[in-house]
Amino acid sequence: MKIVKSRPDLCTGCGACMIACSKVLYKVEDPDKSAIRIKERPGAESGYDIFVCNHCGKCISICSVEAIYKAKNGAVRIDAEKCVGCYMCVGFCPEQAMFVHKDINEPIKCIACGACVRACPTGAIYLEEQD
């Protein structure tokens, strides 16, 4: 499967990736409803950090209601009907790549659709084949 990877040194912080993602996931232009997040580094170390799921699957075992699973294509997904909104997976995620929004019961995470990659004007994010 292909996963989203990043080159933070190329990121300008424009947010095009977050808008594209929120359009795919929730049909709105709202960066807070995006599964990819760009955050400016504080202090002297200028630039941006890019947070996006690498589909490692470590969150699957932490979900007590078995709402998180690996799809046939290899992407780690959340079954919204099973999710109880405890957000244990959000706190557990080693990549800090699962997000919460007050209007959405289940955590927001990447589904590996590639919309963010197509929207990125600098090539700061890209798709890479993963075993």
From TrEMBL:
Residue intervals of the 4Fe-4S ferredoxin-type domain: 2-31, 44-73, 74-98, 100-130
Pfam name, any one: Fer4_10
SUPFAM superfamilies named among the record's database cross-references: 4Fe-4S ferredoxins (SSF54862)
TM region(s), chain numbering: none
Domain of life: Bacteria
Keywords on record: 4Fe-4S, Iron, Iron-sulfur, Metal-binding, Oxidoreductase
EC number: 1.2.1.58
GO molecular function, a single term: phenylglyoxylate dehydrogenase (acylating) activity
Name of this protein: NADH-dependent phenylglyoxylate dehydrogenase subunit beta
Organism: Fervidicola ferrireducens
